[in-house]
Amino acid sequence: MLYSTTIISRSFTSVLSRLNRLKSQYASSPHTFLFALSTPNHSSELSSLVNTLMAFSPTSSLGCLSAPLTPGYISCSVALLDPKSAILFRSTIAGQEKTQVGRWHAFRRKDEREDEDLALPEDTDWDNLWKATRTRKRQGLPDELTRLDAEHISSVLYFSDLSPEGLSSVISKSFPRASQLGLLASSTPFITGRPVTLFHNQQILDKGAVGVAFTTPKTLKLNIPNDVQPLGSPLDVTDSEGNLINTLNFSNPTQLLLSCIRAAGIDTTSSSAITFKDDMEFYLGVLSPTSSVPYELHAITAGDPSRGTLSLNTQTAAPPVRARVQFFHRPSIKPLSLQAWRDFASTSGTTLAFTTLPSPEILQSATDGEGEPVIEEMVLDNRFVVGSENGVVLRRSGEHPWSCTAPGCISQL
């Protein structure tokens, strides 16, 4: 990465001045430009900043409108990447329609059935077959990525609309060793009239995805907030299907969760269903054999004590059979404070980070940050940090892509 910064500011003129100075400094240097922007003012200030960002690198840039990292502040993140190791792309691959709570749409299984339906005669030419299979799996890739050697791509980062399943699936199959980090862009129907707002060079888009593939090694990390606390003991998944957990330890998973909630003295249940407060969440975390900290954290969206099934907010699938899991609980959801971003900035290294933020409804009623000194501006050097209330898609090598919707989780490349 040539340069990155995240500006959290109350001053439109200060942000604009910083961007203009940066543009002058790097105008003659070859680069690929990433940006994300959120402003409390949705009219002239937003338009001026967008125009400045789009003009920064007209033929090699991508970006999105995001959610504010701190309520009431402009959030503007920019990164300049080495074009030799960062390949931009634009995707129009369709995702899946949103499913009803507790229902599963078998998006991934369609591809599996297509592979299973291939009839292989005894005199199969295996060399040609594997070549054809690889070609078929890469046909859905954005044009910019079809020429890349799968072995040389270490990670893929993208901004997407709210249906990223098609792109994430194709990337996983085409670059099986690559990590994947995607931000579901912030909803903008009342800001720009578009469901989401993406930017690719001089284009403004409202669907699909824009992204960058990296050839230099990068590690994908997930940081989980300290207020996400374990409930009960670890359990084994003994039956799962789609986004549903059918049994844990061969027992009714909803009843197990209810027992953990009652044992902890959490008053959110009735005899017939699990009911959640607006700012309270329960999760199912997937544990590694050597750590009690989950490396996946799935929001529990519904539970039926009689049938037992738990529904998870996952992008592709619930944890598989034999996965070690544990319930987690968060009593309330609060926005990340300025102090939290100071602490994040104090960590070493350069990072590209996506975070899930609380919904606008929760932010409106939040009191977090009261009593904190009001500052005009904070700059996170060597940090490209972008947030959205719609969540983040993650995939490390060997995993299926999954969606993290827990506010405060930060995923870093």
UniProtKB/TrEMBL annotation:
InterPro entries: FIST_domain_N. Residues 194-249 form the FIST domain. Pfam families: FIST. It comes from the Eukaryota. This is FIST domain-containing protein. It comes from Lentinula detonsa.
